[in-house]
């Protein structure tokens, strides 16, 4: 074997790999020589933010990661929680933002494929998908193209592989015009006796390459995901992978069958950085080394060189460490499923990754230098909030025009509260996402209990894998983030994100268990960007501790910025998406958000509307942004004591059979929440609110631990006695559910005529068709 190259690289060549000059000096120091071109590429992807979290790792250490139900926390392909009765749930969220901006269909599709592999690599069968999406304004033709492409890619891959997409969220804001966010979460039920880990073990054990072939697609995708987007990013289309969901379906079955043999020692998905990442991480986690021969890798293109093999992110590929002598047993399984399976390497004692090509050493690097002993940047936090935040916090409700129970005069136009509510229902962020979820097969596998659009969280039946459980459990899942809140105050906004995720689970009757997060931010190298990231992480950590929902892992996606026409990077809103899972002990004890029966009583759980501090505010609200064109104020502050009590009362009410519907007050406030309950239940409502000096605040203020529930009159006395005991004064009776196809009537105690009186048909049309109308332009 020939000696490795020791020729230095130019500054341009080093920068092309995303490596800083001082990082290159560190690489030379660790190797004792200059790297080969293949090694330079390996360091480029493994030292990218996407793979090594060099700017965010110090901040992530503050997250709580342990709990009674946590079986696997951060560091593996996915987190795993104990559901009881021998049932274990794997779950994880990942981003595919930059690929989706360049090639929306394949970018989104391969995002789905990648997160599914994280799940079944653990030995779990995927049972559900959710997505959290952000786009610019639908008035823009480019946004409409990106939006349609991403939704098509998600539906194509999920539908073909046979995993239901059961829920999610979609936000629209100009802040995401050039840099959409595509975050995908997957859940899986463990099928193997033992959870499959990724650390290589057993010197002399064979290393198997299984799945699809390797090509040039997805070259350097991890580095691509760690840089700002520009017009030149269109030249990075090779960094977008191409997926095959039908092959992935075979890979799921083959992997689960292989794991059940007990012959697989460790497994790793070839995701970001492909062969480089899988060999380095498996070796480093096991404290061993891996020797890997590229000549044995099945390829789809001729003439590939080591750099291309190592940085390719071709999809549907896995790396196994097998028990020595049992490799043929595993190869036979994969060949029977029509997949490639070859012995391409060996576990070695020396803790290095040695790559062979055509009989020579193409790369030889200490495994830890690639996987865990990577650069870490401890950046300085601003000593005070940035100017934009301080200016925003100076806003007060006194700056809004005067209003009465009849409406508000704004920019020379009088708007009734009917007009305002209809405008909010027509806002794409609030409006129905029917156009999206109708493209998803959300009922494949026949376990989806609550359909998309009809509940605050998705609910999936868990079929027992060994013994018959009675009652049968279900799992609930949600993805949440209000990025406007986080932009205005990252600390408070992040706390509110966790609180709302937990509240959404409680609204379907689920006990919140654990979190996986996707931190989408701009550049951490800029003081404001780092302040946003650091403060949001502080808020997430505090909220997860307060609500007892440890973090099991997730994804960090930084440098979400787009170069404008002047070459100035424009960051997205800071968007820490929280994916949360919850347990429902009895699947018959769930509820959605729609009214169920005429004459049911409507209650508001949480601070009373006439309380001195209701916990709700117009700061950062959809009303303020949509009606007044203003993004300002302080977002709602979370009172964890009230939050815990309100959520517990809601869950208990559902499990006792008292609460028939539940919906939290989020974007759009109380009026929008009531309208959505009417639309989902196809019934009207008659509500009376206390007298108010500012009707926009009582109708459209957001925040606070507020849940709208409906209860049968037969349970009213028991329910109210229970609320007195559990919540004290933090609840109130609002009114009654009215007739099917009726109206939403909101009255005031000091007024004879209604403040809002809208037929269900009118509200439903605005809400249901808002997105379709814009896409038809």
Produce the secondary structure layout.
Elements: H1 11-16, H2 21-31, H3 37-46, H4 49-52, H5 57-60, E1 70-72, E2 79-84, E3 87-95, H6 97-102, H7 104-120, E4 124-135, H8 141-161, E5 165-172, E6 181-190, E7 206-211, H9 221-224, H10 245-260, E8 264-269, H11 274-286, E9 289-293, H12 306-311, E10 317-322, H13 327-336, E11 340-348, E12 352-357, E13 360-366, H14 367-371, H15 387-393, E14 403-404, E15 407-410, E16 413-415, H16 417-425, H17 434-437, E17 448-450, E18 458-461, E19 474-480, H18 483-488, H19 490-507, E20 511-520, H20 527-547, E21 551-557, E22 561-563, E23 569-571, E24 575-584, E25 601-605, H21 622-628, H22 640-655, E26 659-664, H23 669-681, E27 683-689, H24 695-700, E28 707-711, H25 716-727, E29 731-740, E30 743-748, E31 756-759, H26 760-775
Parallel strand pairs: 4-5, 9-12, 20-21, 27-30
Antiparallel strand pairs: 1-2, 2-3, 3-6, 4-6, 7-10, 7-11, 8-10, 9-11, 12-13, 14-15, 15-16, 17-18, 18-19, 19-24, 20-24, 22-23, 25-28, 25-29, 26-28, 27-29, 30-31
Helix pairs in contact: 7-8, 8-10, 10-13, 19-20, 19-22, 22-25
Number of domains: 3
Ends distance? 63 Å
* Class based on secondary structure composition and strand pairing: alpha+beta
Shape: globular
Strand content: 15-25%
| CATH architectural group of the largest domain | 2-Layer Sandwich
